[in-house]
Amino acid sequence: MIAGQERHTATPMVSGGEQGVLVVGLNAPAAQFYNQFTSLWSSFGAQPAVPRRSHVAMQSGGRVIIAGGVDASSAKVASAEVFNPNPGDWSRTGSMRFARSGHAVSEIGAFGFLVSGTDTTPTG
Hints:
single chain, 124 residues, mainly beta, Neuraminidase, four-stranded antiparallel sheet, 14 strands
């Protein structure tokens, strides 16, 4: 890795025809991409706006979504962000109704994602 990641997720993804793994964590300045064909790491866009640990990441149509988790102050978060590998940036998307950690995300076709799991906190 270029920089160490604390409590990170590693999500299989395809970027520009290259297959590898996107790694996002709490303390590195950028997401990192491992190219399985070249065996090289590269910085791959900035980190999400809300750095978090124990979040969930999954691929959908070439993009990666992260939702919930725990921020640097150990508070659960409800926000979600989507990483688009081209041009390599994060954008906010709708927040969940409850802040969550220790949860799971399942893609449900064109309809979006189902988030389920434990340890929820109402967000207002």
